[in-house]
Give the backbone structure.
Amino acid sequence: MAEMIPGKMRALVLPAPGRYEIQEVPVPRPEAGEVLCKVRGVAICGSDPEILRGALAGRWPPAYPFIPGHEWSGQVVAVGPGVVNLKVGDAVAGQAHKGCGYCRNCLSGRYTICEHYGRPETGQRHYGFITQGAYAQYIAISVKSVNLMPKTMTFREGALVDTAGVVLHGLELCGVTPGGTVAVIGPGPIGLITMRLARAMGAARIIAVGRGARLQASRMAGADVQVNFEQSDPVKAVREATEGLGVDEAIECSGAAGTFRQAVEMVRKGGRVSLIGVPTDQVVEPLPFKYIVHNEIAIFGARANPNVSRKVISLIAAGQLPVADLVTHTFPLEQFSTALDVFVNRREGVIKVVVEPNGIS
Ligand SMILES: [Zn+2]
Ligand SMILES: [Zn+2]
């Protein structure tokens, strides 16, 4: 039976750059091609603190007031006109991007690099970045940006579908060599999921490059070798661990300065590099131009998660990609400040923090 939808909801609202507060705001209505969802879990993304700080004001978000949040799961509570694939009560996992649907990239399925990005009049959306997001009790969202979850999956797992999709897209771009070796730079949430997914896709050996507690965590994500970049040169260490040959694929998950070059120098001749971690605008990397040419190193930039959410949901539901243990902390929306502090300051061995705007799920 359909439940009553209230007129107002609690949401995390940014009234101006650098400020946030919990406010009562109207519950949005689903327009044609949209569903209204009750948000059950929202994972804090590495990009959220930047948006909250106002570091990207004018771009992310383009205007205030604004509700951020894009890594979420929930239940459909109402469907707009023209929606035939979802019904009230369905559990869904969200994703941030929706393309215009008619530019060259959208038509070829590459809607995260829509040529009409930032032009909502074309139908393009980027929930939680330029379009109102999910740190709220409800979100109205295009059916193109939600995917059905099986009943066996929890909402906490569902909140990790967006993140895991970013990883799957990055790995699909470069490919994973069955029986090969993959190096993963940056064992944060994205890096840890990369290790598990690379294994699920056939990698025989995983080398994690990082430091501290997160490098320790790479053991539970299945890394066979740990390279602490504070104690040894990561390129040298990776080469030593591969009889001097280098790895088949290197996946950059940190966005830190210097790691792009390291990734290039870690792969074998004919190896592939995928760049998943997002650097700041200031990071400009000097690269070994001739080395890349002479060794046919292939480099892929990976943006977000086009056409991978369904696959990710199937992998999680089948137990091939465990993510439940990566949700180390959960908080109600009212404790958002604490949730953010735990995530940003990496307290208590945190990996992923999930905020639950409608109570514990
Ligand atoms: Zn994210
Ligand atoms: Zn487009």
About this structure: The chain is about 25% helix and 25% strand. Residues 235 and 278 are 21 Å apart (CA to CA). The domain at 165-301 is CATH 3.40.50.720 (Rossmann fold).
